[in-house]
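Take just one protein record:
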Amino acid sequence: MTMKQKTLLVTGSSGLIGSEVATHFDAQGWHVHGVDNNQRSVFFGPSGDTRWNQQRLSETLRSFTHHELDIRDREGVLRLIETVRPDAIVHTAAQPSHDRAAAIPFDDFDTNAAGTLNLLESARRFVAGSPFVHMSTNKVYGDAPNEIPLVELPTRWEYAESAYEHGIPETFRIDACKHSLFGASKVAADVMVQEYGRYFGMPTCCLRGGCLTGPSHSGVELHGFLSYLVKCNIEGRRYTVFGYKGKQVRDNIHAADVAAFIGRFIAEPRSAAVYNIGGGKANSCSIHEAFDLVSKRTGRAMDWVYSDEARAGDHICYYSDLRRMKADYPGWRPEISLEETFDQIVEAHERRADSRQVDRDGSTRPDAQLTSRARQLSHPTRQS
C-alpha cells in the first residue's frame, strides 16, 4: 500500500527562511505548497524582489506548488488551507523592518498580526492537529535587553553580567519597553500563536529569530544585516552604521540550520512552544567585525559612514540563549559556522553580480546551487 505524500504549507516561500524550509522538506519527500506574492518588493522596492528565488524553487524542487496569495486575504487563506489540508504549516511571511513599519503601520500590522491570525484560525478549522511553526523575532523583547549592563571591548559590546553569558533567554520580559511598530505587531502575532496552542491545544511554536541569514537572502538596508553588508562591499556601495559606535552585536544563524530545527519540531511537536533561535554567542559578531570578515574574503575595504542616531528599538548587544532548544531537541545545534556562512553569502553575491553583467536587461538570475554543506543539512538523513 502506497503511503500518502505529506504536504507542507509554507508562507513567505520565496524569502530566506521560507525557501530554505521548502528545500528542506522537498528533500524529505514532502509536497511543498508555497505562498508568496513578492510583497517584499512592495515593502523595499526592486532590491527586495524575490521572484528569482520563486523561480529557483520551481526549477529545482521535485514537488513544489506556488500560490500567489497575500496572507491578508482572509477568505483566500481559508480556502487554500481547506483545499490543501497540510500536514504542517510554517509561517515565515512578514513585514520585517523597524523603519518601514513606521511609514506603513496599517500594512505592517495587517500583515504581521492579522495575517498570522488568518492562518491560525484557518488551521484550527481544518487541520487543528497539524504542527504550526511561526517565525517570530527577537524584537518581541523590544529594547529591554539594552538595560543589561555592558562592557565596551575594542570591536564590540559585551554583557557585563554572568547571568547572560549564554545570551538572552525566552523568559526575558517583553513589555515596558520600546519595540518599534514592527516589534509590536510581531508581539501580537507571537502571543496569538501561543494562545492557539494553549487555548485550543494546537501544536504551535514561536521561533524568536536573531539575525537569520544565508545565500538566498535578498538583503536591503532596512532588513537583512549580513546579506546587505556583503552586497555593499561587493558592489562598492557606501554602508551606513546607525549608532552604538558600530560595535552592536548580533548572533547569526544560517537558514539551513533554522529549517533543520523546524523539521525536528514538526517530527516531535509540542504545544505553545517558544524558542529563541540564533547562532548563539559562538556565531555572533559586531558590525566592525563583520566588515573585517567580508573584507578578508573579497579583498575590498568597506566604504562606510557613521550616523549617531540609532534605530528605534534596536539592540546594542543581542545573542540567543539556545539552552532550552538544545534541551528539548538534543539532536539539534547550529551546524554552519559564521565563517562558512560568510563564505556562502560572498559567493552568492559575487555570482549574482557576474550574472547581472551578462544580463543586459538588468535581471538577476537565480542561485541554482547552495554550497554542499548547506545541502547536507537539508538531506533527509540529517533528520530524526
The longest strand covers residues 132-137. The domain at 7-382 is CATH 3.40.50.720 (Rossmann fold).
